[in-house]
Structure formats: structure tokens, C-alpha cells
Amino acid sequence: MKKFLAIALCACLLVTGLVACGEKEADYKLGMGVEVSMGSSDTGNAQVDATVATVVTDKDGKIVACRIDVAQNKMNVTDGAVDTAATFKTKMELGDDYGMAPVGIDNDGNGVTKEWYEQAHAIEEYAVGKTAADITNMPTQDANGHTISADQKLLDAGCSMQVTDFVKAIAAACNDEQGMTFKSKGKFTLGVAANTSAGDSTPATAEGDGLAAMYTDFAAAVVEDGKIVAAINDSIQPKITINTAGEIVDTAFTATKRNLKGDYGMAPVGIDNDGNGVTKEWFEQSEAFSKFVVGKTADEVSGLPTQEAGGHTISADQGLLDAGCSIQVTSLQATTAKAANNAR
């Protein structure tokens, strides 16, 4: 009888141990990288291509989840006019409507032509288990004027599109020094989102050049049990100067707001919309918001209380204000909630 009880006790301890091991939390890091190009802009067309990647890496720096998208924003500026009410969709949001598959782009000549989002999903899966160095050192080849992967596994998955900016964005996300660390049992999903506005654009006139300003906000969110466990926000303000003939006079972009840090120059201006005497840089306020949404659902982020102050819609939550976040909060809410809803 004693022998039986001892065996039963050992069995219980073994099962308990297995359950405990299965429930053990591990350390992860969420990172984001953005690559911006305006090289496709030409007379009559102002264009910004912004490739965003977000990754979750483990303690060894290996990617356990990856999501990518491209905000390919275009504006007709033929006569120097601009459309401040223009709306934009990312390539992932366009889905089949992006129209890559019907064109039959098959750069590696294997007879497989897939849509952009399908090829992007293949890159996301390919990145899992790799480090930043592995991604950076991905073998590539030139095909039909494009730099495509030379890794047969990725080619067999149907991905034969240009990979240069994906490689840069994913590597940057892995090396993100402002990434958010979190603990998880590994049962999470990851989402990324981008929203673009052209509201700051100005037309070219006889008195001066105009500006095609297609500014994009980005967000990444890790979701577990329906709640955000980590988040990142960023934003870009690329500027394309145009004249009345629709010619591109100049293009200017330095870095994302988050990567500019103090060089963005918000703190010295002394923007203190809630009047509490705290003036922080944009990246600090963005980080405060990202930390604030941890533990919230997408709906709760969308429904955060706001107030009007200094001509801006800012948070009405005292905890967030005390953390120094008094910038316009609507775009942060929208992109973060969208990223959480996009999590897969």
C-alpha cells in the first residue's frame, strides 16, 4: 500500500511539475522598424513608400513573431494641387485589390505568382527563428531589376518580390533600443497598423511651392487573452515639395519621430497642453502612452476619455497626463487599437 501511495505521489508531482513548466513565463521584447523611400516620386506623382516591421524576440534575440506592411501613399500633383482629404490603405489592407498576382510578377521564374499579402506572409514566417544578423545576411540575387531572396525556401513559398526594405525594417525592429519588454507564457498574437493623413498638405501657387505631406502613424501591439501586453507607437513626417507644374522640387525625411528622440524638438518648444508644467519630447510621450495601454483591450483604448486643450484633443485620464503625455492622442488611440485588432 505504501509503495502504491509513493508511486501515486510521484505521479502527482510529475504532473504538477509538467503543468508548472508549461505555465512558466518567459521574457520577450517587442520592437519596430520603419524604412522610408520617396524615390518613386516623379512629375505629377508624389509618393511615399514606408515599410514597417514589428517583431517579438526571445531572450536569445531570435524572432518568435513577425508582422510587416507597407504604406504606399500616392498623391496626384499634376498642376500643383493637393488633396488634403485623401484617404489611404496599406498594401496589407488592400489585399487582393493591390493587384500583384494578376500582373503575373514571377521574378524567379518558378511559375508561381502570388499576391503581395501572400508573399508578405511568407516573409513573416521565414523570419521566425532567425536573428537580426540572420535576416541581414539573407542571400539575395538580382532578377528583372529587383533584389529578391536567393533562399530557396522563401522562393518556394512564392515570395519573389523585392526584399531590400523588408530586410532593413525587420533587422531594425530586432535591434530596436526603445523596444518594450514583457513577460508571457507564449500564447500571444502580434499586430501592426498604419494610418496616413494628408491634412497638412498645401497647394503650389504662383507665390510659392506647395507641400505633399502624407504623414503616417504606426503602432504595434502584442495581445494575450484579449488584452494588450506590449505596444509601440511611431510616426513619420516625410515632406515632398512641389511646384505649379507638378514637378518634385525637393524631398526631405530624416527619421521617425521616435528615432529622432530629442532632435524632433518638441520639448524645447514647451508644449504643455494640459498646463501641468511638464513638457516632454515626443518619443517620451509616445512611450508613456504605449505603457499606459498595457492591460487594456482594443475597445478600451479606442474609448479612452479625451478633452480639448490648446487646440488639440488630448487625454482626460489623469494618470496619463501625470506621465507627461499631453500630445494629440486620437491618432495614438486609433493606430494602437487597430494594431490590437490586427493581431494574429
Explain this structure to me?
The chain is 30% helix and 29% strand. It has helices spanning 2-22, 91-94, 100-103, 116-127, 132-136, 152-156, 164-174, 257-260, 266-269, 282-292, 298-302, 318-322, 330-342, and strands at 26-37, 45-57, 63-76, 140-143, 146-149, 180-184, 189-197, 210-212, 215-224, 227-236, 239-242, 248-252, 306-309, 312-315. It starts with a helix and ends with a helix. The chain has 13 helices and 14 strands. Strand 11 and strand 12 form a beta hairpin.
Please summarize what this structure is.
It is built from 13 helices and 14 strands. It has helices at residues 2-22, 91-94, 100-103, 116-127, 132-136, 152-156, 164-174, 257-260, 266-269, 282-292, 298-302, 318-322, 330-342; strands at 26-37, 45-57, 63-76, 140-143, 146-149, 180-184, 189-197, 210-212, 215-224, 227-236, 239-242, 248-252, 306-309, 312-315.
